[in-house]
Amino acid sequence: MLSALLVSGCGLVGGPKVLRPDAPQVMTVTGPLFVQGMIPRRFSCHGAQSPPISWSGAPPGTKSIALVVDDSDAPITPYIYWIVFDISPATTDIQAGQLPPGARQADNSHGQARFDPPCPLTGSHTYRFTVYALDAVLSEQSGATLKPTWLAIARHAIARGRVTGTARA
Questions:
Q1: Nearest C-alpha neighbor of 154 from the set 68, 53, 54
Q2: Which domain holds residue 82?
Q3: How many domains does the chain have?
Q4: How confident is the model at residue 122 (pLDDT cuts 50, 70, 90)?
Q5: Would you give the DSSP letter of residue 37?
Q6: Residue 111 — very low, low, confident or very high, per pLDDT cuts 50/70/90?
């Protein structure tokens, strides 16, 4: 129960919620190749490459950045497609199909430390690309399990921003 409260209070699950009273929510996040809110097919299971994501506005005191990609329409929520953490605070983007130098990946909901491309079976789903400014470099290793990494991000989040994109079957 405590983990659910930590995660939901951080905004890792659900809509925009307060991180903590002194945490600004000032970051701007963009998907520069998203077209009218749609994720291009090459960044879905039809191309299997992670999309480029850019951000700005990390506050002073940011020691690292994390990215969490989840599916807000998945029948099992949250379904995590990608967790990237320990991104240098000097970095302001992730290029298509690449990790920034020194960044690490945690397991996704499929149990793999990699980008799991969005692939709705029917209709369309909305995917959230949430960038967190953290007040620490995380102690988790590459390939760390999802829940401990997710909770570490929740504990250390001092700001966040989000862009959403829709993918179709």
A1: 68
A2: 2-168
A3: 1
A4: confident
A5: T
A6: very high
